Amino acid sequence: MSIYKKTASYDIIVVGGGMAGMCAAISAARGGAKTAIVQNRSVFGGNASSEIRMHICGANCHSSKPNLRETGIVEEILLENKSRNPYASFHLFDMILWEKIYMQEGLDAYLNTNMDDAVVEDGEIKSIICHQNSTETEYTLSAKIFVDATGHGTLGVLAGAASRVGSESRHEFNEPTAPEEANNYTMGNTLMFVARDREEPVTFIRPKWAYRFSEDDLKYRPHETGITAHADGIGIVEAEEGENFLPEITSVDSGYWWIELGGNYDNIVSQGEEIRDELLKCIYGVWDHLKNVGDHGIGNYDIDWVGMVPGYRESRRLDGDYILTENDIRANRIFDDAVAYGGWPMDVHVPGGLLDFDSPASHVYNFEGCYTIPYRCYYSQNIGNLMMAGRDISTSKMAFSSVRLMGSCSVGGQAVGTAAALAVRYGCSPREVGQSHIAELQQQLLKDDCYIPGFDNQDTEDLARRAAVSATSESVHGPAVNVINGVSRSVGDKTNFWESASVGSQGETLTLKLPEEKYLREIRLTFDTDLSHEIMPSIVREVRERQVKGMPHELVKDYRISLYSQGKKVWEKTILDNVQRLNIHPLEDIKCGEVEVTVLGTHGLERARIYEVRIY
Fold first, then answer.
1. Tens of pLDDT along 178-217?
2. Same domain for 438 and 370?
3. CA neighbours within 13 Å on the CB side: how many for 278?
4. Structural domain of 258
5. 547 and 418 together in one domain
6. Which residues contact 96 (CB under 8 A, 6 or more apart)?
7. Do 307 and 332 belong to one domain?
8. Model pTM?
9. From CA 53, how far away is CA 254, in angstroms rounded?
10. Distance CA 344, CA 364 (A)
11. pLDDT tens digits, one per residue of 279-315
């Protein structure tokens, strides 16, 4: 029962503060919409927060697929974290996520706030009823558009949105690896743990309530440091004929993803507390096995942290106007209304989890390349003002097993927030954005450094597209004109960047001459941050150690922008210690006919690189 009652009204309300919800809320606010984000935990980040500590994987599959790391807001967050959190503390990462939300203009945050009900009239959500535990306050929050980023599809289910759980039959979408018969199985929940080498012997006494595991019980769950394992981050997959798995290293000091339960429970959501308790029995049982059953070489190791909030992989999915399928993924399909992309393999975990002793923990169905996700997967089929962001979007189970990764969810969330802001601006529904404004949505996402495979910069307002481009030097594979070719990352054998021959003592200069002088209001620069490798925090030592120390060496650190009118310098700005890939420089209507960007230094590379220059 709430002691206090308050009301508030917004253009857009995002329910759920994981990575997808954060990116949706930030992009909606940046799009000019009055936005709120409602999060039932005390921290943002969901599975990436200090409560759960899963690293943010995505389409680049732990660096096995070149140039596919997600950009946009998630890249902005991870680069900020990289610059300020050199030892990848998840507590510092919590702070950076909190800061990103609370310092965003036009965005209100409700932490520790649980959504209890939704008020629906004529097929649209009018308001949600929430309770904030920390203040004993009941909030009635109304909005024009709601975004379900709860993971569970909770808002959608409360509102009566069409939804689904489990696997479709192989015949519903003609998916080759779907089961013959439909079922309600899901992938399970996991609690993570961290162990430390104390550099002296440490004993462990098994709690009486913890399970016992034999070596035979764990025969399909490799748990020795240094074993090649699959890319969920901390474990192994047993590959069947026609399947593949990605290289990873399992480590006793950070694990294990395969301590997983709940997939074959009657209801993975309503039984969440029971599943958590069982997972605790499993974690301490596995640790007892490692310490006290045989010699696993960890006599000096001690449990340092055990999560108490399970990380969910799967629960409900909400139906949109299109359901993404396995066939779309295998075909690397490029949709006309594409707004995001994925590349992680279809990674289906065994429903029984750890206690299914005679089955491998997961089956991974690999494929080459990447696929796009259509906008029609991101809004509800039957609730007119409901959108989805994260793992509850409109997919089949097989497609979901690839789409669910946090990197993919993040770029999808940014697309949703951007689309919702467009809907508010035009006074239309999310569906109508897709019908009448899809090209504008796609071009805005590209402008905000969100990659959409198969699409390039067609922005008619970008003056740089008509500029004459030159440079003080350029490498053979990085001509200066690349900065206006419309693609802001390397794709296949096309570098798409300008690269200087070197960085001299005076720097290297890129020059864009406009066809005629214009009053400029903004310049956008996109630099190289090595999208083939990872930069996220991780509890896995090997994942951390294979990342570059400090900032990506390719990233421009110091640079100068100079504007000229009729050969005379009219404006100049020098930027030092840059840590971001996308740099946006507002101008106050300065008349200009020539723009120079001089790279003065990088974070390590001995050449200057710029992917894109946009001028408005």
1. 999 999 999 999 999 999 999 999 999 999 999 999 999 9
2. yes
3. 19
4. 189-312
5. no
6. 77, 80, 81, 84, 85
7. no
8. 0.96
9. 10
10. 10
11. 999 999 999 999 999 889 899 999 999 999 999 999 9
